[in-house]
Specification:
Blueprint: E1 3-9, H1 17-33, E2 39-41, H2 59-75, E3 80-89, E4 92-101, E5 104-110, E6 134-137, E7 140-146, H3 153-161, E8 166-170, H4 179-194, E9 198-201, E10 204-207, E11 210-213, E12 217-219, E13 225-228, E14 235-241, H5 258-277, E15 282-285, H6 290-303, E16 308-312, H7 320-333, E17 336-339, H8 343-352, H9 364-385, E18 388-389, H10 395-400, H11 421-431, H12 440-444, H13 464-476, H14 481-486, H15 491-503, H16 505-509
Parallel strand pairs: 1-2, 2-3, 7-8, 8-9, 15-16, 15-18, 16-17
Antiparallel strand pairs: 1-14, 3-4, 4-5, 6-7, 9-12, 10-11, 12-13
Helix pairs in contact: 1-2, 3-4, 5-6, 5-11, 6-7, 6-11, 8-9, 13-15
């Protein structure tokens, strides 16, 4: 008899055990009543949210998860629920997946492969499991695995050897550029190796720096994609099984292009970070430059114009066109805007420091004072209004320290923190593809911090296409100076740029969190010592 399996691609808030349990119950009932599903599969650790990090070290947290699971056992009937949670067993903690059926936990699997690289540190908390898990669901022997298990050949092979005819894989796999294609290639290869169709259910939504893109999918035993869920969106999709127990073709959502994927990741990250932390919208400084312009577009798309406020803070060095372009974009996007010149504050600081600075020429100190005047204004508005301050700096600038601590780095969240300047231009063009919300002049004019007369970024930095390629090699690929020079870059320039990256680690350590979109982001991903003699 034909059966249906539901794929519950949901957003589960870390620590909200009560809310996550209720979401599981609601979705399970929908899958049973509306989709006539025999089973519903949820993402990894959905009862506690992913990644729970050091919440796992609190006994009361684990006890609350146990109570939540017990509540699901009492409430669910008429459908099998495959759900993820942390489980204490014989004095050890496991990353577990269980199958709930009519008041009983009929099967339980402990994740075997624990990732301990990049943003993952599961070996800090969990003990690896050993035994495969095969359970009869809808008359078919189905194996259970969790996330990293599918990236290694062993778990699928052992599960197939234990008699499984299909594999259900629970995931919390965060987004980075190109990750979706890589996932599908790995899972397709695993299906061919094991001879098993695989159901891959992924988390969706933002959690601190991480964004989960969903895109759950199903492959047959030959590795062919039969079904793919939406990207960056909740969904409850149904997989139909034939009378012979084989997965049937379904809707395959097309994969967006690179710029669209990154842009949607930024929107998801801002929406969920602001919303889940309880702020009443956002505020940001709008300079007339491309970084703040793109940040504004992302913020409006994430939260709506009514929850976004922009502040223009011109100085004695601000060009008229910068004010004109900033006001035009604010008008186009329908956001609240105000103009607060920083000249009175800047002049006051110069007067206060006149004796201290006597006889010394103006330099970066005065530039930083201007940036810090703006930071004080924006933080004051944030405090008074309850809106989170978004910083607007990009990865290129942050890499080489082209940013001011307690100035333009001040804020609660940094949407472009992991976005190189060259990608900022691409994303701005992509966002303007149907409607020009970012004025064309903002995109084409030479970038400038406007902190001294006639300043341009290229006064201090090489062209961004050159800078970004050096940074990609050094920061994301861990190439050394010799390797980068061998790729065709000037040795003196490479030494200067890599030195700038190294000596500015102290700034990045104090930067707000931001959305991870590359393979190596600053923060929890790339961690270098500040005091460093290498």
């Amino acid at each position: 008899m034909q059966a249906n399996i539901a794929l519950a691609q949901g957003d589960f808030l870390v620590g909200d055990i009560t809310g996550n349990v209720q979401q599981v119950l609601d979705i399970a009932r929908r899958a049973r009543d509306e989709l006539s599903a025999a089973a519903v599969v949820f993402p990894e650790l959905c009862l506690c949210g992913y990644p729970p990090e050091d919440l796992l070290l609190r006994p009361e947290f684990l006890a609350d998860v146990e109570h939540g699971l017990a509540h699901i056992l009492l409430q669910v009937s008429g459908i099998d629920v495959v759900v993820g949670y942390p489980r204490q067993h014989e004095g050890r903690l496991y990353n577990a997946a269980g199958v709930v059926r009519d008041g009983e936990l009929i099967a339980e699997y402990f994740k075997t492969e624990l990732p301990n690289y990049s943003v993952f540190d599961e070996k800090r908390y969990f003990t690896p499991g050993e035994a495969p898990c095969v359970v009869d669901i809808a008359g078919i022997p189905m194996g259970i695995t969790v996330c990293e298990d599918i990236w290694m050949p062993g778990p699928a092979a052992r599960t197939a050897a234990a008699g499984a005819k299909m594999l259900l894989n629970l995931n919390a796999s965060p987004y980075q550029a190109g990750k979706g294609k890589e996932r599908e290639q790995v899972v397709s290869r695993r299906a061919r190796e094991s001879g098993l169709p695989i159901v891959y259910v992924n988390l969706v939504g933002g959690q601190d720096e991480l964004v989960f893109d969903g895109a759950s999918f199903v492959v047959d035993a030959q590795g062919k994609i039969l079904q793919r869920s939406r990207f960056f969106d909740h969904s409850l999709d149904v997989l139909s099984l034939s009378d012979a127990g084989q997965p049937m073709p379904g809707v395959v959502t097309p994969c967006p292009g690179e710029e669209e994927m990154i842009y949607r990741a930024l929107v998801t990250g801002v929406r969920d970070y602001v919303g889940k932390t309880g702020f009443q919208g956002v505020v940001l400084g709008l300079s007339g430059g491309i970084d703040s312009a793109l940040t504004l577009a992302v913020a409006v798309d994430a939260l709506g114009p009514e929850q976004v406020e922009v502040v223009l803070m011109p100085s004695r060095y601000t060009a008229d066109m910068s004010n004109e372009d900033a006001l035009e974009q604010a008008r186009r996007m329908g956001v609240k805007q105000s103009i607060i010149p920083i000249e009175p504050a800047f002049s006051a600081f110069l007067d206060m420091l006149e004796d201290e600075f006597a006889g010394q020429p103006m330099d970066v100190t005065e530039e930083n004072i201007q940036a810090r005047c703006r930071g004080i204004i924006l933080m004051a508005i944030s405090n008074k209004s309850g809106r989170m301050l978004l910083t607007t700096g990009n990865k290129s600038e942050l890499s080489v320290g082209y940013a001011t601590l307690y100035g333009d780095m001040a804020g609660g969240f940094a949407p472009l923190k992991d976005v190189f300047k060259t990608m900022v231009y691409k994303l701005s063009r992509w966002r303007n593809r149907e409607q020009e919300v970012i004025p064309e002049r903002v995109i084409v004019r030479p970038p400038s911090a406007e902190l001294r007369p006639d300043q341009q970024d290229t006064d201090s930095l090489p062209p961004y296409d050159v800078l970004d390629e050096i940074l990609r090699r050094y920061v994301e690929q861990d190439q050394g100076v010799t390797e980068i020079v061998a790729a065709g870059f000037d040795k003196a320039l490479v030494r200067r740029i890599t030195r700038m990256v190294d000596i500015n680690e102290y700034k990045r350590r104090q930067a707000p969190p931001g959305v991870k979109v590359t393979r190596r982001a600053y923060g929890r991903d790339r961690r270098y010592p500040i005091v460093n003699g290498y």
